[in-house]
Task: structure prediction
Amino acid sequence: MSVSARISALSPSPTMAVDAKAKALRAAGEPVIAFAAGEPDFATPAHVVEAARRAAADPTMHRYTPAAGLPDLREAVAARARRDGLEVEASQVVVANGGKHALYNTFMALLDPGDEVLVPAPYWVSYPEQIRLAGGVPVPVPTAPEDGYRVTVADLEAARTPRTRMLVHVSPSNPTGAVLSPEAVTEIGRWAHAHDVWVVSDDIYRELVYGAAAFSSLPALVPEHADRTVIVDGVAKAYAMTGWRVGWSIAPKEVAAGITTLQTQLCSNVGNVAQAAALAALTGPQDEVATMRAAFDRRRRTIVDRLRGIEGIELVEPQGAFYAFPSVRGVLAREIAGRRLASSLELADLLLDEARVAVVPGEAFGAEAALRMSYALADDDLAEGMDRIAATLAP
Ligand code: GLU
Result:
């Protein structure tokens, strides 16, 4: 028996793979500390869990509901977009099984075979694979640590061809934590408009910005391009709800209708109980979002300090999301634990084997000689994990 060519060509998600390995080792009693998948260590806020409990007891929630999502949740998502200054109706919102699924729906709805999609690199692991699954061609657009990993219009223009159909815009960025200024986002939106390039704006980390950095909504800054923009977002990161699997896309009506048609054939509605929880998250008190943000910021400052104290590591200070993306070129240039490592893949393996610390190698994100470290873990674990890394990498 063999699987299809489509599935044979698909690589498994490296973030999910490292996460699964770390969790399996921990379940087996190994004291693994995971800087792996971007997953808040907090429990979901209690009022959200309570809303889910109530929904589970409501028989109307035991039935199929509209494929595009619970009407109240679609309206709550639209209302939040309107508070950003966008003109959005509930009919433009389609609820999906997490932001990841909303992204895939979007690629499926907009890409034809051979359409090129510009993906600033380092990029999140699933963009290229999802684009390929939808028949598109991912075109990485390199960004450099010297530029703070911030993509510019000049970079995008250098990669544009007559086949360019779409740009994936993500700020704050996974994996680099880079946040673009409002001016830079405006320039990118205007460039996309001038060249009729669709924008998929992955806003999943919008609530997680630190210091002077601020989230900028591309279609709010460039409203003339709103009818060529799809926003993807969800409750996972801001509300500590990764396991609930609720995300959404906000798209021009025709695209939203296409995505809905896809869902009617693919999965019908997302679990009603999880949708009720997402509704409570969006419409209820927001104080825990701020509390979690403050904790992530504290951990961010700790990991930046600790990483910069290790010989051979260079780091662009992350301004958003919850990832540090250190360059380890200087570490690979010297001997570690008596041997010379060839790549960050080998370094990640060594850290897991020797230090029982899980990180994701840069190769997963289209970058060499780098690691991605999520700092959405408990302060004590962060300190202990950094002690172990520092000891393992000590000259
Ligand atoms: N977005 C998170 C990460 O990059 C979750 C894991 C995943 O879906 O890739 O770690």
Summary: The first strand starts at residue 33 and ends at 34. The radius of gyration is 21 Å. Residues 13, 15-16, 37-38, 100, 124-126, 174 surround glutamic acid (CB under 6 Å).
